[in-house]
Design a protein that fits this description.
The chain is built from 3 helices and 7 strands; from the N terminus they run αβββββββαα. It is α+β, with helices and mostly antiparallel strands. It has one domain: Peptide Deformylase (Alpha-Beta Complex). The strands form 2 sheets. The chain has a 5-stranded antiparallel sheet, sandwiched between helices. β6 and β7 form a beta hairpin. The two termini are 30 Å apart. 30% of the residues are buried. The structure holds ligand GNR and nickel (II) ion. The site of ligand GNR has 17 residues, from β1, β4 and α2.
Length: 169
Amino acid sequence: MQKLDLVLFPDEGLREVCAPVPEMTDDLDRLIDDMFYTMYEAPGIGLAAPQIAVQQRVIVVDVSEDKKQPLALINPEVVRSAGQITWEEGCLSLPGIYAHIDRPSDILVRAMNRDGQMIEMEASDLMAICIQHEIDHLNGKLFVDHLSGLKRTRILQKYKKLQAEAKAN
Ligand code: GNR
Ligand code: NI
């Protein structure tokens, strides 16, 4: 298992629309292991392939307390959504900044699983938030893009400052 380097904002790789995965392969299976390892080490509750510089539609999530409920989804799509929830989100690609984001609270997701089977699953609350945050990554979208103009400008200024400080140290 390998801990992979995280791609940080403003890397352009985070802005690309990722390619659908045609089929499950051994290489992809190994990549998913590395993604889980990288996510747990970070630590994070989700990770999308473009965050480790792979421009393919693959995400991993584990929102459980005991970190024993890994879920890998390939070519995930939200097919229905309802409700609304506000959560303070963060992102491993924008370390140090957090913002309250509104999203649907209940979703129906269609995807391929690690075994190459098509599945549909319902998700709600934090699991729904996390899956939507990861699918956004596959479409080149970041949580700060959900903010309105002034809030977004302010938080990105804060991020820039934090990155400059991190570089200086
Ligand atoms: O670790 C993460 N925590 C988190 C908290 C609230 C909403 C979304 C997330 S996902 C984030 C990991 C990450 O950046 N995934 O892309
Ligand atoms: Ni993220």
